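Read as chain and fold; for instance:
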Amino acid sequence: MGSADSKLNFRKAVIQLTTKTQPVEATDDAFWDQFWADTATSVQDVFALVPAAEIRAVREESPSNLATLCYKAVEKLVQGAESGCHTEKERQIVLNCCRLLTRILPYIFEDPDWRGFFWSTVPGAGRGGGDEDDENARPLAESLLLAVTDLLFCPDFTVQSHRRSTVDTAEDIHSIDSCEYIWEAGVGFAHSPQPNYIHDLNRTELLKLLLTCFSEAMYLPPSSDSSNTNPWVQFFCSTENRHALPLFTSLLNVVCAYDPVGYGIPYNHLLFSDYREPLVEEAAQVLIVTLDYDSSTSSSPTVDGTTTGTAMDDVDPPGPDNLFVNYLSRIHREEDFQFILKGVARLLSNPLVQTYLPNSAKKIQFHQELLVLFWKLCDFNKKFLFFVLKSSDVLDILVPILYFLNDARADQSRVGLMHIGVFILLLLSGERNFGVRLNKPYSVRVPMDIPVFTGTHADLLIIVFHKIITSGHQRLQPLFDCLLTIVVNVSPYLKSLSMVAANKLLHLLEAFSTTWFLFSAVQNHHLVFFLLEVFNNIIQYQFDGNSNLVYAVIRKRNVFHQLANLPTDSQSIQKGLQRKKKTPEPISRTNSQDGVSMEGSRPAAPAEPGTLKTSLVATPGIDKLTEKSQVSEDGTMRSLEPEASQLSPEGNPPAALSDGEPWSGDASHSRRDRRRLSSASSSGQWTPTPDWVMSWKSKLPLQTIMRLLQVLVPQVEKICIDKGLTDESEILKFLQHGTLVGLLPVPHPILIRKYQANSGTAMWFRTYMWGVIYLRNVDPPIWYDTDVKLFEIQRV
């Protein structure tokens, strides 16, 4: 039968279903088989031939028929998994049912009355001939998930058969050990199977159905309680799934082994369509969804140094019930870490690979899923995090992240990408090794829209952060705290900043210490505290190599004097706020000596009007996102117990860092303090008061810098007068050989603000991840135009 006939017959069946007012018996095979037995429809055909309005109509008007359709489709998948799909006809039926369920499930999830349907046992189900008890019948959801996992390791359908003989001795799907059929070499598996594009296509379709099953999460509104688990994921990642280990390994290896460049032959991807990429994307999406787990509510497996002979560490406690999280947290072999890190770095760097032949390499689009995966790896497996930081390989992750941050800074539709990039850097910056690694010279010249400089990876990081703060869009302001916390965390280890980076830091201080900026929001002065902490750390711990920064501090000394003499009377506060009205620009870009941007770079572009984006929940304030640790003489860290009052060191409550509304979890005493220190005007607007300014001005850590200026400024001025100098290089030479030993205050202990897992970020990751998956699945558009509740779909 031709494809046109087959589509016509399928469409006729759909019309019959929507027009029948009477329930159709489950035993009426002649009717139900029209949907899958004699048709050859692609997933795109199914989406076109089963319109949303008709699915909803059947759901409302003849619910029993929709129920029977779902039940029969699952039954066919179960039969296919039982038989092992040895004939072409059986495989076709399985794929058709798979496509049909992918189409229908979102409409089941969007209706609260239907959501429990798949978790019920269907009365009378399976009475067609067998007479098994309803008592031990499985819920439909479980039968569906188990059938899909069996089908993902089905010889000659989704994996290479190990038998080389005729059909009658085909492998029994229930006796095979699926660990021998892992899809790709890598973690815990050495053999790389022969690529087979038909198997890749079939796996991709089954994974699409799995992802659709898991997407029930999209139809529940975000809650501050992120522990409500997704029943589909929970069952799938439990011991009930006998293929959990080989499937986890297959997904991880398929992603990390993928090389989009195609064996180094330029234009290779244009010659044959790449069947691997859709599978890799689907695998990455399924993997991050199965790892959606709030680690703050559980004890994660302990990190111990033992190595056993297996790919997974056998440590106690066994860790979370979610086997995928459990397996991920127990990977421990160096070669496995190397394989994962190299793979993720290769894929993240792919969009940056600028060759002399444009379009010569395939450009991947799933970098956001990769960033979520990398985050999960570091968050759930501390050994992996230490491995990443052990060598300069971490820079192969850093550079792509800085590239994405810089590239997305003007684009409102990519706020989520900005957040995850910054979160990863915050997590890494809590470890001393990250700061140390940043001293490696930066020689890779990825074309980026930033000033040309010669220096280290630390310079690159500071220059990109400066660019984000001064020329990103308004919605990024909540990230400023995080960006500067990262710089504070690495500052004690930075051996030598370039002049370009030193000037950028002072330009930020200048912008953030204007009176109108300090007085215009309750938390703005935190940014000044962070920057002063950076200068203090470098002066106290890395004075010797940092003559550029010391010179920049001397040149801009008036900024520090103005801060020390900040007026606190009402009149000056009002005057400072008046100035704001004249200067609408949040941070002036003048006097930032931007210089020429790198060759071959394009300026960061805003989103095209009409671009779709998904909303995000607020992220917790920096005080909830991090916990303070003090670094001892020997380099070990000890956590500082938070004081009883949740006030930040500057004596007032940190504001929530939010993309929307801040979480209302603020302790009530901090609100009371805020009221005491500032008066709320009649309009309910916050207004600064002299008491409030005094409360933090008195704590500005200016002693070290003032002492440095007191000692060095007269010496520098003397040199200039004596030698008639106006030449920077002579002054820099003098500063290089100068010393402040014994002249500065006693060095303060190094404070690091380490990321700590919390339910607020767990919920943020859930909304971000599903938003990405929603927007990236456009062919077919699985969830488009359904009533999702986890986020809003907005147009820029």
User: Anything to note?
Assistant: The longest helix spans residues 88-109. The two ends are 46 Å apart (CA to CA). The chain is about 50% helix and 5% strand.
